[in-house]
Amino acid sequence: MAWVAIFVSAKALKLEKYGVEIKPYSLVYKNKGVNELLIKILGKTRSAVSVFANVSVIAGFIMMGFAFWFLLNNISNFFVAQSEFSELTVLIPGVTLTSAPAIAAFLLSIPIVLVMHEGGHGIVAALEKIKIKTGGFAIFIAMFAGFVEPDEEQFEKAKKISKLRVIGAGATSNVLFSFVLGAILLTNPMFAMVVPEPLQSTFYEKAETSGVLVLSVMDGGGAQQAGIQENDIITTINDKPIFSPDDFPSLNPGDTASVSVLRDGQPLDFGLTVMAAPNNPEQGLIGIMRANEPPTPIYNVIDWGLDTPIGSDISYFLLWLWMISFFIGIINMLPLPILDGGKFIQIIIDKRFSDKAVKTTMWIIYASTFAIFGLNIALSYMKSGWFTI
Fold first, then answer.
1. Structure confidence by residue, pLDDT tens digits, 94-141
2. Fewest CB within 10 angstroms: 17, 165, 234, 339, which?
3. Residue ranges with strand state E in 101-141
4. Longest dimension (CA), the chain
5. How many domains does the structure of the chain reveal?
6. Where among 293, 323, 358 does a domain terminate?
7. Is residue 67 part of a domain?
8. CA separation (Å) from 114 to 63, 81, 138, 293?
9. Is there a single domain that holds both residue 102 and residue 187?
10. pLDDT band at 294, cuts 50/70/90?
């Protein structure tokens, strides 16, 4: 529906006059003045860009290695330690992105991430004296892309190391940006949700209170039928002490669970029937929305105003921007045909073997990478069904 509105509006406004190419399945904008802008920026930042270009080659290998390690380790976790398995999905508005706040944060983050990514490619291309013919962005119904289009003849004539610098710069700029943003967000209590140990204990102080607050109870769920109410604090489940949501035990649908809570300071005990999760019949839930007091940043130098709507919204958006910037950078270095990692590997092996051998090798690499990536998504579906945010 959004794409139809964009397409009709673009046609009605006759955006073709401003360099926009409009087709039923895509909208592409190209700007021929990008090269001049990049040269101006380079004139003031040449030393820093030169260092960045060299770092990008090393970072390219590191990011590719990390991406493969994560995906292969994640597959292993599914069969060995499924509680540590990380669910993966491709973010597509309206398909896997279904909540309005998530879609809004995604749409606001993507242009920033694309500018950083393509700007990284472009500025290093200018350093290597490779002309950028056009730069712009594209929308393919629900997918977004940014691009800088180098002069193909100049790019092919460039040294191999120059090509690797240009290709690696896009993903490196995204990851470096995520590091800077992450350092700022370490002063935000919401960021503690995604910070792993030991960083969490280094940068955050856990709340002294124990137990998990019941934000709400699900209609018809076991908690509601047993008499658990909003604002109760769960202290034990099946005699296991509960200090945070991480302490909740695995439960099977149909089982009976004993739950102890504090209500207005008074201890109460309940027996309830475990319900099945709506998106996974094999997962048991007691039927509550839960929360615990967020940890306090040790370096609490920024007042994020999380008790206000605007402060909470800004923090939520920055979390999405950090996440998308980091993972787009990492995933972009996977060797797949449409990603930078594929070009990176092809440049390395090009002219070392015959054209036929290079082509065969690349398709073997593409197929293997796609299988690993696809298996992660398939296992996520097996674990939790159609994974949406």
1. 778 888 888 889 989 999 999 999 999 999 999 999 999 998 888 887
2. 17
3. 132-140
4. 78
5. 2
6. 293
7. yes
8. 18, 36, 11, 35
9. yes
10. low
